[in-house]
Amino acid sequence: MEAIEEATEHDDEGKHTHEISQQMMKIQQALLQQRAGETEQETLDRAMRDPEVASIMGDPVMQSILQQAQNNPQALQDHMKNPAVKAKIMKLVNAGIIKTR
């Protein structure tokens, strides 16, 4: 998933947008299938075994951002303008901790 996100950043001219989008969809579908039937607790337990996820979840700044996002989803959009925060949020999304619609 991170490789696809990096490819998107480097596709300045948009020549590979369709291919990148297709690969992203395949990855997301595979992740959803992999997690099918998991309870929220099982998802959290699995994700927290990833040291990077555990580090993000233990970061007081990220905890504050996530708390703000629960109360005000627009705040999350504002925080996503920061590339470092965006990368961490996307890691949590990909791990299944943050659910998107």
Overview of the structural elements:
76% of the residues lie in helices and 0% in strands. It is mainly α. It has two domains: 1-36; 39-101, 434 Repressor (Amino-terminal Domain), CATH 1.10.260. Helix 1 (2-10) runs antiparallel to helix 2. The longest helix has 19 residues, at 17-35. The relative contact order is 0.11.
> What is the typical, i.e. mean, pLDDT?
87
Instruction: Report Rg.
Output: 15 Å
End-to-end span in angstroms? 18 Å
Named at the architecture level, the CATH assignment of the largest domain is Orthogonal Bundle
Number of alpha- plus pi-helical segments: 7
Structural class: mainly alpha
Question: What order do the SSEs take from the amino end to the carboxyl end, as H and E?
Answer: HHHHHHH
Number of domains: 2
- By DSSP, the count of extended strands is 0
Indicate the CATH topology of the largest domain. Answer: 434 Repressor (Amino-terminal Domain)
Question: How would you classify the quaternary structure?
Answer: single chain
Hey, roughly how much beta strand do the residues contain? under 5%
CATH class of the largest domain: Mainly Alpha
What's the shape? globular
Report low-confidence residues grouped into runs of 5 or more.
Answer: none
